[in-house]
Amino acid sequence: MSTQWIAALPMYDFPDLTAAYDAWWLAVAERLSAAGIADVPRHLNRELRGTDSWRHPRLLLGQACEYPLAKSFHTHVRPLATPRYSAPGCDGPRYRSAIVVRRGDAAASLADLRNRRCVINEPTSNSGMNLLRAAIATIAGGGRFFDSVTPSGSHWNSARMVADGRGDVAALDCVSYAHLNRCDPALIAQLRILDWTPASPSLPLISSRAVNERTRQALVSALSAVLADQRLKEHCARLLLAGFDFEIDEGFREVLDLERRAEELGYPVLC
């Protein structure tokens, strides 16, 4: 097996952000190499799907959704840092999802969405499913709430499906919503935010459990240095990156608590 590490940041890698992500990662990589870390890639891997990169034994730096990490991938990776994003809906290292409907939809509250068609990006998504389940659980009454729940494959596709009438409601994480508002404003103009979900920690940066403590500390130093580098200020602003928190709950208790509370309300499955 190759000793080369990989780096993959697929969660918000929208086409118009490619150049900013490439420049940001190259700056991190150069600092890691200068710190004596061997086999650091100079380019991001965009060939692996997100979940495949999380399983990769040589993942130096990645980004993942907390809910699938908590449920399925905690044996493969460790969280390294929680980003602080400047998108509306974020609060420090926390984010939430915008619950969107079509702009002309008559719904005035979440209760008005009963028996409507829901779209989710992935069944295991924290922002698209778990946070929305937490919001709906309080009004579902312990039974089915939506007429249907359909996976779309991405937040972008969820937005398209609501806009063109294939669905009625979706939960879009606020960072994705902010990026889409910039890169596809015509699409977002067809939607409106009906409400917001509860908040949880933002999508953490992660590394393989094969990464030793010296390399993890080098990553922490590199991330901090790049964020403070004025030459990269424009790229960080484009990525909506405002900072990192390096103290992380590796048990992902908060997202699991949202699941538990939904179960206690008799709504274990978004339906």
What do these coordinates show?
The protein has 271 residues and is of the alpha/beta class. The chain has two domains: 132 residues, D-Maltodextrin-Binding Protein, domain 2, CATH 3.40.190; 107 residues, D-Maltodextrin-Binding Protein, domain 2 (3-Layer(aba) Sandwich). 38% of the residues lie in helices and 20% in strands. It has ten helices and twelve strands. It has a five-stranded mixed beta sheet. Helix 1 crosses helix 8 and helix 4 runs parallel beside helix 10. The longest helix is centred in the first third of the chain and has 17 residues. The protein is globular, with a radius of gyration of 19 Å. The chain starts with 5 loop residues before the first strand and ends in a 7-residue tail after the last helix. The model has no long low-confidence stretch (mean pLDDT 96).
Question: What fold name goes in the CATH topology slot of the largest domain?
Answer: D-Maltodextrin-Binding Protein, domain 2
Structural class: alpha/beta
Q: What's the alpha carbon Rg, rounded to whole Å?
A: 19 Å
Q: End-to-end distance, in Å?
A: 43 Å
Task: Let me know the largest β-sheet.
Answer: 5 strands, mixed
**What is the second-level CATH architecture of the largest domain?**
3-Layer(aba) Sandwich
Number of helices, counting only DSSP H or I runs of 4 residues or more: 10
Strand order of the largest sheet: 1-2-11-3-12
How much of the sequence is in beta strands? 15-25%
Mean pLDDT: 96
CATH class of the largest domain: Alpha Beta
